[in-house]
Amino acid sequence: MFDNLQDKLEKAFHVLKGHGQVSEVNVAETLKEIRRALVDADVSFKIAKEFTNTVKEKALGADVLTSLKPGQVLTKAVRDEMATLMGGTASDLDLSQKPSIILMAGLQGSGKTTHSGKLANYLKRKKTRKVLLVACDVYRPAAIDQLHVVGEQIGVEVFSDKENKNPVDIAQKALAHAKANGFNAVIIDTAGRLAIDEEMMAEIRDIHQAVKPQETLFVVDSMTGQDAVNTAKAFNDVLDYEGVILTKLDGDTRGGAALTIRSVVNKPIKFIGTGEKMDALDVFHPTRMADRILGMGDVVSLVERAQEQFDEDEARRVQKKIAKNQFDFDDFLGQINQIRKMGNMKDLMGMIPGMGKMMKNIDLDDDAFKGVEAIIQSMTPDERANPKLINGSRRKRIAAGAGKDIQEVNQLMKQFAEMSKMMKMMQGAGGRRGMAQMMR
Ligand code: GDP
């Protein structure tokens, strides 16, 4: 995320580190570099200039020149100002109305349908809501089908009517259906065009007036840079929406939209989309985002993801097995699956302070565990449950079955033995037990 901006900011701070003494001259130089980095990331010159002016005031107020660690003082000022620029604190959805109505608006291709699904999934999981998805794109039958596919994936009902060409009517019928059937959240996916046009704006305004959503969310592709900001403004003029969902932050996006939408439309970014899968949605936290942009990682989000995926019952079961020294390959597979549910490995690594940069040029397989899994799956159920059975000839058979070298099987066996030993030791040391416990 924001690799280029991260690199440039780091270089900007380097100006300070390179000098033995910090002077007003090299602070000014650093700030100029920061401004340039922001403009390159698609932040408008005006906002970038205001930004560095504020940082300068704050940093000088904090006596950056006489401080023992001027780099840190300046970094902190940049971080705080970035968080402020992005809205300061996270903004939650207002779901007090029953049913809560959420209207999704945005251009075609911005990720509306995908994010209608992600949001439905999020509400279903986090807030234990009964969610109805509504397909209101009357121009593209494929869009309706796409929403049905998404609904099926996450187990959420989709309301649609391919014969009906009146989106306001569809939305109202969907609401009646929701009320009659005990749905407490309704997410309406609307049609988008390739560019803003009067007809589209009139249509979404009509739907907005008819259903009176509690949350109208503007969905925008972060890759479109300054255009994203301009479109955000145009939609806000018509809809006066509640918040923004910024999508495709997993791509090679420069960061300008994330940094400036808030200050241009004065509406919070509520969620960010970080992938095509249904769980690639994060609540937007300005401070954490600032930390990530500055390469400081985001341990809080990492821990939250771990907690979300954490399965208490499974952990207790595994703990018992470890206590009895019975941790086997089936348990191992189970643990791998829990980790995988947390998301893309590279993305996870990026949340660890300092790791993002290190990982940048490493081609980490999206599915780093595939090889290990193939080997375990090539074992018989008996072998998985009782790893001691696995002798030389069995190893050969397992390697052939998994299409791997015998060395790889040997290595896995060795690692597994070491891990079991360590788990036992940790068990002995009391309290913290094994991988399962470490995931907490
Ligand atoms: P809509 O026309 O606004 O409904 O957009 P879609 O939901 O159909 O998304 C357009 C394309 O962008 C699809 O191929 C999605 O898979 C992809 N997409 C949507 N959100 C994300 C995201 O957060 N990250 C990535 N990498 N792709 C996304």
Automatic annotation (TrEMBL):
<dbReference type="Pfam" id="PF00448">
    <property type="entry name" value="SRP54"/>
</dbReference>
<dbReference type="InterPro" id="IPR000897">
    <property type="entry name" value="SRP54_GTPase_dom"/>
</dbReference>
<comment type="subunit">
    <text>Part of the signal recognition particle protein translocation system, which is composed of SRP and FtsY.</text>
</comment>
<dbReference type="InterPro" id="IPR036891">
    <property type="entry name" value="Signal_recog_part_SRP54_M_sf"/>
</dbReference>
<comment type="function">
    <text>Involved in targeting and insertion of nascent membrane proteins into the cytoplasmic membrane. Binds to the hydrophobic signal sequence of the ribosome-nascent chain (RNC) as it emerges from the ribosomes. The SRP-RNC complex is then targeted to the cytoplasmic membrane where it interacts with the SRP receptor FtsY.</text>
</comment>
<dbReference type="InterPro" id="IPR013822">
    <property type="entry name" value="Signal_recog_particl_SRP54_hlx"/>
</dbReference>
<protein>
    <recommendedName>
        <fullName>Signal recognition particle protein</fullName>
        <ecNumber>3.6.5.4</ecNumber>
    </recommendedName>
</protein>
<dbReference type="InterPro" id="IPR042101">
    <property type="entry name" value="SRP54_N_sf"/>
</dbReference>
<dbReference type="InterPro" id="IPR004125">
    <property type="entry name" value="Signal_recog_particle_SRP54_M"/>
</dbReference>
<feature type="binding site">
    <location>
        <begin position="106"/>
        <end position="113"/>
    </location>
    <ligand>
        <name>GTP</name>
    </ligand>
</feature>
<dbReference type="GO" id="GO:0048500">
    <property type="term" value="C:signal recognition particle"/>
</dbReference>
<dbReference type="GO" id="GO:0003924">
    <property type="term" value="F:GTPase activity"/>
</dbReference>
<comment type="similarity">
    <text>Belongs to the GTP-binding SRP family. SRP54 subfamily.</text>
</comment>
<keyword id="KW-0963">Cytoplasm</keyword>
<dbReference type="Pfam" id="PF02881">
    <property type="entry name" value="SRP54_N"/>
</dbReference>
<dbReference type="InterPro" id="IPR004780">
    <property type="entry name" value="SRP"/>
</dbReference>
<dbReference type="GO" id="GO:0005525">
    <property type="term" value="F:GTP binding"/>
</dbReference>
<dbReference type="InterPro" id="IPR003593">
    <property type="entry name" value="AAA+_ATPase"/>
</dbReference>
<keyword id="KW-0687">Ribonucleoprotein</keyword>
<feature type="binding site">
    <location>
        <begin position="247"/>
        <end position="250"/>
    </location>
    <ligand>
        <name>GTP</name>
    </ligand>
</feature>
<keyword id="KW-0547">Nucleotide-binding</keyword>
<dbReference type="GO" id="GO:0008312">
    <property type="term" value="F:7S RNA binding"/>
</dbReference>
<dbReference type="InterPro" id="IPR027417">
    <property type="entry name" value="P-loop_NTPase"/>
</dbReference>
<feature type="domain" description="SRP54-type proteins GTP-binding">
    <location>
        <begin position="268"/>
        <end position="281"/>
    </location>
</feature>
<dbReference type="InterPro" id="IPR022941">
    <property type="entry name" value="SRP54"/>
</dbReference>
<dbReference type="Pfam" id="PF02978">
    <property type="entry name" value="SRP_SPB"/>
</dbReference>
<keyword id="KW-0733">Signal recognition particle</keyword>
<feature type="binding site">
    <location>
        <begin position="189"/>
        <end position="193"/>
    </location>
    <ligand>
        <name>GTP</name>
    </ligand>
</feature>
<dbReference type="GO" id="GO:0006614">
    <property type="term" value="P:SRP-dependent cotranslational protein targeting to membrane"/>
</dbReference>
<keyword id="KW-0342">GTP-binding</keyword>
<keyword id="KW-0378">Hydrolase</keyword>
<keyword id="KW-0694">RNA-binding</keyword>
